[in-house]
Amino acid sequence: MNLVTPALFGTYPDAAAIAALDPRDLEPLIMTCGLYKTKAKNIVAASRLLVARHGGRVPPTMAELIELPGVGRKTANVVLAVAFDQAAIAVDTHVFRVANRLGLTKATNPMQSETQLMKVVPESEWSDAHHWLIHHGREICHARKPSCAHCPERALCPSAKRFLREQSADTA
User: CATH fold of 5-71, please?
Assistant: First the structure.
């Protein structure tokens, strides 16, 4: 659950209010987030652009979103999927790892992963697939030690045999 946004938007309800801030004024409200000083600068700068270019409203296109400071493809895809109900696959570290391990992709970077996932996942499922892969990565398919023995996808997963073999060797 996002614990930062209720206090942030309760204090500064729109882009214009945030745009008027010095980034240091924003830091106490977001300091529980990692890299909060950089994020504060980006949030204020993005808010200023939103006000100047978009009337204070979040734009509904990838091209416009990635022009905002601190917004890359992952964040833009999340905004498109959640705020605008557009089909989008946001590739974070969990999605990238799990998609590769499950054999859905053979990607070496997030952009390749996004493109490959768009080919194998039906468009109507893109936004949900993003959430499913994140959840699977957080709960079962951990980065260092995946829980393959407890994975409901292990029979289909090309990586499961290797990890199960490695884990058996570690306990032997």
Answer: Endonuclease III; domain 1 (1.10.340)
